[in-house]
């Protein structure tokens, strides 16, 4: 699997340090509160696991699965709920955890949904931000790293469901896209 990677953009060590730093920051921001951390499946799973374990505060976890993409790398522009939360959102302080904001369609849909469901507050935390991909105006409150306008994989991010288990973020060799 590692042989399929052309270049590493963000190393395992850099991700570890960033999770500690952001976890400490969120610990202060949520002191005395009981936030509901919402992981957006599947990509956010590794980041959610690491950043929440770096937070020294009580919190609740739940998961949402929405899909804004077809089978491959291009956005269809559609967002649909594949799995909804089990938890009531009304009155809660939401901490949405994402792996990447690209077009912004996924998060824009989720923020509107959670506002409609009367969340008390909504904070967006994303490991990666790809500002050049934006199609709608949305910003994260907490960003780990900015990435260039390239398709990235690893640490939750897939290409055809593979590479999510890479411990770093990188770019695939061109032959992988053309090789099937
Ligand atoms: O800003 P956007 O252009 O909407 O892209 C970001 C979304 O795309 C990816 O999810 P995907 O729908 O591929 O599902 P996955 O997490 O299960 O891979 C990623 O995990 C984000 O949720
Ligand atoms: N794997 C992957 N999924 C994405 N979803 C939106 N942008 C990306 C990206 O660059 N890589």
TrEMBL record:
Lineage: Bacteria, Bacillati, Bacillota, Bacilli, Bacillales
Entry annotated with the keyword Nucleotide-binding: yes
MF (Gene Ontology): guanine phosphoribosyltransferase activity; hypoxanthine phosphoribosyltransferase activity; magnesium ion binding; nucleotide binding
GO cellular component, one term: cytosol
Family: Belongs to the purine/pyrimidine phosphoribosyltransferase family.
Protein name: Hypoxanthine phosphoribosyltransferase
EC number(s) per entry: 2.4.2.8
Matches recorded under SUPFAM superfamilies: PRTase-like
Cofactor: Mg(2+)
Subcellular location: Cytoplasm
CDD domains reported in the protein's UniProt record: PRTases_typeI
UniProt xrefs under NCBIfam families: HGPRTase
Enzyme class at the top of the EC tree: transferase
InterPro entries, per the entry: HGPRT (IPR050408), Hxn_phspho_trans (IPR005904), PRTase-like (IPR029057), PRTase_dom (IPR000836)
PANTHER family to which the protein is assigned, alphabetical: HYPOXANTHINE PHOSPHORIBOSYLTRANSFERASE, HYPOXANTHINE-GUANINE PHOSPHORIBOSYLTRANSFERASE
């Amino acid at each position: 699997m590692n042989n399929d990677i052309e270049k590493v953009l963000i190393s395992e060590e850099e991700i570890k340090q960033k999770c500690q730093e952001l976890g400490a920051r969120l610990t202060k921001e949520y002191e005395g509160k009981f936030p509901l951390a919402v992981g957006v499946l599947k990509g956010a799973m590794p980041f959610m696991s690491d950043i929440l374990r770096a937070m020294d505060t009580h919190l609740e976890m739940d998961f949402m699965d929405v899909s804004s993409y077809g089978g491959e790398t291009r956005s269809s522009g559609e967002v649909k709920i594949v799995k909804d939360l089990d938890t009531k959102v009304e009155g809660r302080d939401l901490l949405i955890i994402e792996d990447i904001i690209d077009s912004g369609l996924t998060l824009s849909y989720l923020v509107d949904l959670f506002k409609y469901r009367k969340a008390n507050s909504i904070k967006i935390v994303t490991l990666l931000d790809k500002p050049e991909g934006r199609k709608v105006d949305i910003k994260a409150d907490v960003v780990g790293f900015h990435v260039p306008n390239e398709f990235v994989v690893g640490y939750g991010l897939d290409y055809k469901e593979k590479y999510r288990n890479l411990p770093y973020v990188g770019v695939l060799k061109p032959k992988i896209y053309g090789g099937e």
